[in-house]
Amino acid sequence: MDENFTRVVAAPKITFDVEREYPALLRHLSSVDPGLATAVQGMRSELPVAVTHLPFDTGEIFRLPDHNRAIYVRRGDRGLIAIKGSEIHCQDTELAATVALAGSSAHNSQFEHLCMMEHKIPGVLLHDEAFGEAHAAGRFQTHYLERFGDLARFPVPLLIVEWPSELGDAWLAKIRPFLSERSAKIARSLARDGLVAYVYYYPGTRMDRVIGLDTAEFASEELHHGYAWRKSAMGSAIDFRAAIDGWFGLVARMLALGYLPVTISHKYIGQTVRLQNCVLDGGLVDADATQPMSAITDAAQFEDSFWLMIHELTRTTRRLMFGPMTEYNEHHTDPVRSMIVDEIRRRLAEPELARNLDPRLTEILEPRPLYERLDRFGEVHVPPRLGD
Fold first, then answer.
1. Which of 56, 220, 273, 292 stands the most exposed, by the fewest C-beta atoms within 10 Å?
2. Element (H, E) at 319
3. CB neighbour list of residue 223: distance below 8 Å, 6 or more residues apart
4. What ranges in 195-298 are assigned the alpha helix state H?
5. 163-195 pLDDT, tens per residue?
6. Domain residue ranges of the chain, discontinuous segments joined by +
7. At 78, which helix (H) or strand (E)?
8. pTM of full prediction above 0.90
């Protein structure tokens, strides 16, 4: 292990363990990745952590650019183990924060946004956040395995390791110069929940996402040469068809299982099908925003959630295929949106997926005369005013 980038530390307290919470997932993983159970057992006592915020690749462990809270351990050609939240051990935090926030004021920065809007502490992971994500992923993968006999290209939770409170105190001291008084107060309050590392398995060998695909120089060049040039220039690194088929195949199966890859309350935080969570191998991450349809009891909220999913998929698909310079304003008509609705409808008509769909989903996708659709929309979305 290259100690310029990583080291091993004792795992002081395990608050979530796949062997206890979702043993069927660990058994299946062990059958497709022999030796994984042994690796997880080792991480219960000693965990690899990052000592730098910089991107690196030691061969065994790597961090990608802009993956500020995660490092990845390769499992050959079978998958990856992600370790999210080990950055509490980094030795260059002050320098990394200075570079990241260059040009921002103390009251108008990414750190301020994280504290005030997302209720997160910059650079580290809260126990509540990790716990919610682990169980969201565990429930979904359990249902997916029961129905389809394999795991989705989606996180499989393994462990949550809680760090000692003194490490949290030291981290807050490191980032205090980069926070306003209000954000610092929020961060101190949030830290009482505990800071952790979340360890999960990803059944794929790459972790680069759509949002990191285009440099400014590449986008400028592409603007002059068009789609054919983009497809040729990226063809050796990215299989556009495989990415699209992977995302839409997985989303269709999610819908068939009774899950939505979005949550309305996460609109300003992140969605499972948003740019930063769609992996270029056709997989998805950030399970926290994936929710069972049964949790949504309001008809308008259900439909809003469906169309939010379509909106996010449209933005992600356009960015992958055509780049950032051609994104439509969300208020403009976008033919890609119609194509995506047609693709969801087509996939859910397949016999394997068509049975036992949520009736509300069927209602949205069922072809109807325009007036009938408008009439129903009014009944759902334009209720009487209170007091009338």
1. 220
2. helix 299-322
3. 323, 325
4. 216-234, 240-257
5. 999 999 999 999 999 899 999 999 999 999 999
6. 6-202, 210-381
7. none
8. yes
